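Quick one: co-fold with adenosine-5'-triphosphate.
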Amino acid sequence: MSRTPGTGLQTGTNPRPNNVTLASRGLASSSNSNNGGGGGRLTTSVPPSANILPSAAGTEERLMVTVRIRPLSDSSETNCIQALPNRSCSLLFDDGTRNKPKKYNYDCVFGEASTQDEVYTVAVAPLVHDVLNGYNAAVFAYGATGSGKTHTMLGPHVRPVRATPGTNSSHATTAQTGETPTSPSEAMNIPEQSGAVVPSMVQPSSGLMIRAVADIFDYIDQHTGEEAKFRISLSYLEIYNELIRDLLNPGGPLELREDNRGNQSVAGLSEVSTASRAEVIQLLLKGNKARTVEPTAANQTSSRSHALLSITVQNLTPTGTKQGRLFMTDLAGSERARKTKNRGKRLQEGAHINRSLLALGNCINALAGGARYVNFRDSKLTRLLKEALSGRCKTVMIAHVSPETRHRDETKNTLVYADRANHITTRLQEPTILEVEEAAAAAREAFPVAHYQSLVAELRDEVGRLKMKMMTERPRSGAALQRQQQQKPEDQSPTEEQIKKAELKFLREQIVQTFKQQMKLRRRLLEADSHLLGLELDAERQHMVISHWQSRQGKLYDRLDEDDDEGMTPWRTRIGNTCKSFLPLPTGSDSEGCSALRSAWSELASIEKEVKRYRQIRTTTEHELEECRKKGVTLEDELPERISSDEERELLSLLCRVHELEADKVSLQAERMARQAELRRRDLQLLRAERQRRLCEDIISTQRRIIEEGKVEMPEDLRELYALYQQEIHASTYNSGMNTAAGGFPRDALYDAKLPPIFGQDRSIYSASSSSGSEWSATSPLPPVDSEGNVVNPDRAMGPPVGPRLPSITRLRNNYGSAQSSGSSDE
Ligand SMILES: Nc1ncnc2c1ncn2[C@@H]1O[C@H](COP(=O)(O)OP(=O)(O)OP(=O)(O)O)[C@@H](O)[C@H]1O
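Sure, here it is.
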């Protein structure tokens, strides 16, 4: 139930402060003695050296719940809540009745004077360490509107105020200054110098997100070497009115998908890889700017959406890739319409926020009560937090409360909510270690969309750059115009003027030409990628064919070395070797297998050739694109010297428009391609599953023959498995039966009638004669075999096709009807 103390992340930037105490089941071992502190700050007893080891997989963990009390917004107000100075895991809450203030206990309570650093060190730093060790971790900020969630997660400096999509105002401004934060330095409250590198040091007011990023980079800086290389990527999304939006690449709503293992993923969400902390902070900033924030009566900078940041860290070692992911969630605040005085759109937003928080509350209740089934499906928020809450993740909840008496009701709700969450236990999974192959496969799967996304991001950057140019370089070209105007027309000979005009025309044409060329090259790149992807899937299909036939011949599948440069020769040899064993008697399935193998290997050889050719095309195209881009920039730089400001603006805006259209087009292509890739992948999965199913059928039939021939008594567990199997078949047909019987046929009667009996009356095991050479017998759990011991119909070797053998619905209805009228049951 507890995290194990030990050595941990030692970045030097976030030493555990001396004034932090954790509850005994919390993050680190600590005695309960306190050094005082009071004043609403945290008190301590943890030695500064007490760092944290990652927890062992499989251990039971309780979701860590902390409460942060924000300072009074107005000193004339009275407090209804207080952190206990000597017991930093408890607080006293006055509920306004005559009763004594009630004490609540949590893993940690951060008082009004607590600092961002304290919150980070206690609640998040240990998670960051776990993430670097391959675990998934999550931290989410919960609380009523205005209680300080965003302050904790982002800090006060990256607080944008932005109109919701569809309204007129469009620029983000910081809450405090009213200006747009434009750089990482500003986000971190660092005076910006031109060209200055963003320091690793975080500022006292920096929020948890920036601190986590800095910590991860500090660790990586210290540990990168021959044996360990790291890859960081992040995605940032918001859920606004139950719609998911990408904050790093804002656009239309994105679709939430679920795979067959119940994992959730957002289709088309940008996952940006980066190697620089400044870039990450820049991305965070960009994301925060794009977030939907509105002033409400309760909070001037109220977040109207839930924001989810995900930072993935891959540690690439020679033996495999350790992958950990940190989810950081800033939830929108729960609110009461009466108090917030919201109307119209704000009211509708509030309803969505409350509904998703209610769904989250229901999940927390169910999890805390130990329910076996938890309904995560009620909202997108709960679907996305499923992993964080259901135990595959280490999770910390930071509940936020306002201390003012007027917020008493909301504060109480939050405390109760947090108290329930305190009872959630989870079982940690093994750290995620992707084997080299698996990592490559994952990269391959992610490949098409990721590439399109980076292309769209590139185009949008280009648009941004051109727009900046329109704003900043106008004075220069204006000066050029002035010079032109000052120049008397009589000073210029008509030929000179004509030459100038012709030069200008030529320059403009060249610029347009270069841009056209860039588009063409980009398209060629995408086509190459798409073709390569198709080739990879084709290759995979051929590998499956080969492994299928080779395994039939009792050979292990001998996969070709990917780096084999000799091209087709070794494959040909292999075809020869593989088929040699069949050659004496190439009949029936042997010859079929041989020719299938031959054609699969030769297909593979041509696929491999084609892959090499397209890779080469890709590299050349990339190179050409880079050259073309450089040429475009040089030509653009010449423009201001030659043309007037208006002409330049017109041309630049035309180029912007072209880029924007291209970006939109690529986005659509990306979406289409992602869907196609997903369908192809599923096809392959189905194919693979079908093949495995057939193999299982073969195995079971053979085993069944052995059992029948040897008159072996069937072991109890095998019998149970057959029973389960029968039920499975029944379950699948039962559903379709229900559909057919939608005309109001009683459920129980149908169920009983459809369930095929597995054993005889006395539950004795089957007798060989009961099934041998016969149709499937209802008393036998096994498929029929003929007198030779062969399964009668291999397609039915896994059991009876339950549907056809069952009484028709009409017959059931008739039976049921007559049973009703005679007042007796068939049973
Ligand atoms: N620990 C703190 N120290 C100083 N000021 C704080 C603290 N917590 C919150 N505040 C201030 O309180 C105000 C409301 O905080 P914030 O916007 O973070 O609340 P919120 O819970 O995110 O609200 P919403 O759910 O409406 O978005 C802000 O002006 C913020 O700067």
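If it helps, The first helix runs from residue 116 to 132.
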